[in-house]
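pasting for ref
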Amino acid sequence: MQITTDAIIIVQWGTFSLNATIAFTWVVMAILAIGSRLITLRISDTEKLSRWQNLLEVVVVGMRDQIRSVSHQAPRQFLPFIGTLFLFVATSNLLAVVPGFKPPTGSLSTTAALALCVLIAVPLYGIMERGVPGYLRKYVQPTIFMLPFNVIGEFSRTIALAIRLYGNVMSGTVIVAILIGITPFFFPIIMQLLGLLTGLIQAYIFAILAMVYIASAMQPHADEEATDHTDALQG
């Protein structure tokens, strides 16, 4: 049994190899790109909407409301980034029920890449809102002696993001594989259903934590409500 999709080699060209992580990542990207194009191709502003457009509007409105409640700002500037994170993680996890599909979020390299995107986005949004001096000032608050601890905290929460998502997805995949070998009928179906729910929850938590980090970077002082959100989600 393969623990990670990085170890599954699909194609080998000399020194270059295409593993399952890269292949399934491109599958998810293609599904999201083609699906969004097909849904928006016949988008309508009348009362009669297609089921897919209804679903799209529910998802977008839900993400906008969550972003607004966390950041207390207009969600327009955050929606493309946070929405993409959520949709990618959610789609990857939901496709795990497809036979032969290995979710790329079950690879530490994928979750680390997603967390790295958050690590880069946090200072970018913070600098756009507060400027370079204003953003860097938060690293020396309340005293300059806190600089190394604040820097370490910035990187440690990124590592936590990556490991949390990877651990939850990988553990679910491993448990289902073990149950299939022991009881190949009833329990695997239940675990797959629970896996779908867990996958959506993990996508939600990942996106909300990313928004919390960005929102805190854009505030002059640590936002107590954002901190409460982080504590509740990490608890």
